[in-house]
């Protein structure tokens, strides 16, 4: 059975991805506070140790990471760094370190977000992080070895997240619809793509 590592498997989107991938894959769950491996993806040393322990894998999905929600006025310089270290560099760590351990033809799927292309007041940290992440995916796709592939999913706004935030969720997309795209990416066998979800 092929092995899929899911970082963020307890999240709103990640738990739906988990349900789908469990059907066909041996899944390794990774989060900071629970799972088969408790790892903060922004800690490169811990990420390396995790991959050493897991060994080869066929799919790595990251649906994880933090970026501050708040206006420019509410952002300190440290807030920008915190988001870059978490959502951007955390996912970059998983690819740059993980590719050394990945099986031939492995697929990496990272998660960006709609704010990269549709800025909103309060979303400037995430806009910056998501755009950088998508550019990383396009650049890395040109260089990954051994038939490996890398793509990103750019979710809009999950219905469940809107409900958690106390917002009107009528325009939200159920997280399961995002999760289906992660599976579709594996089947399509493309690389360097950003899938708007
Ligand atoms: N939900 C949306 O509407 C939406 C829209 C656009 C983009 N996105 C993006 O999609 C991704 C997932 O969103 P979500 O709403 O599903 O998130 P969520 O519900 O907050 O869950 C985040 C998941 O990632 C894990 N995690 C967080 N930081 C981590 C780290 N540094 N290292 C390892 N695991 C970490 C969390 O577990 P622990 O807390 O145990 O670590 C949890 O499993 C995020 O990057 C988010 O920006 C979400």
From TrEMBL:
Gene3D superfamilies listed in its UniProt record: NAD(P)-binding Rossmann-like Domain
Similarity field: Belongs to the short-chain dehydrogenases/reductases (SDR) family.
Identification of the protein by name: NAD(P)-dependent dehydrogenase (Short-subunit alcohol dehydrogenase family)
Protein biosynthesis in keyword set: no
Keywords associated with the record: Oxidoreductase
Organism of origin: Aureibacter tunicatorum
GO molecular function, one term: oxidoreductase activity
PANTHER family: DIHYDROANTICAPSIN 7-DEHYDROGENASE
